[in-house]
Recover the amino acids of this structure.
């Protein structure tokens, strides 16, 4: 079961990216599992369907980098 296999990865990501809020949702509302949704200010900015740890890490890295504001 791919969604169960992703639980340790999900927990590791939550520990690594402490400035990102990780939540789980009721699977009855999702058409495919596992589904990862990245949101900013209440709006969906990315979605990944399937158990692909490398791709979800890549997308979270990109999401975190794009969220940082640099002041000169």
């Amino acid at each position: 079961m791919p969604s169960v296999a992703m639980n340790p990865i999900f927990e590791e990501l939550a520990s690594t990216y402490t400035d990102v809020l990780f939540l789980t949702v009721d699977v009855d509302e999702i058409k495919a599992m596992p589904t990862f949704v990245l949101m900013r200010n209440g709006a969906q900015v990315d979605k990944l369907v399937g158990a692909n740890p490398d791709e979800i890490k890549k997308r979270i890295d990109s999401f975190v980098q794009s969220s940082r504001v640099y002041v000169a």
Helices lie at 2-5, 7-16, 53-67. Strands lie at 35-40, 43-49. The radius of gyration is 13 Å.
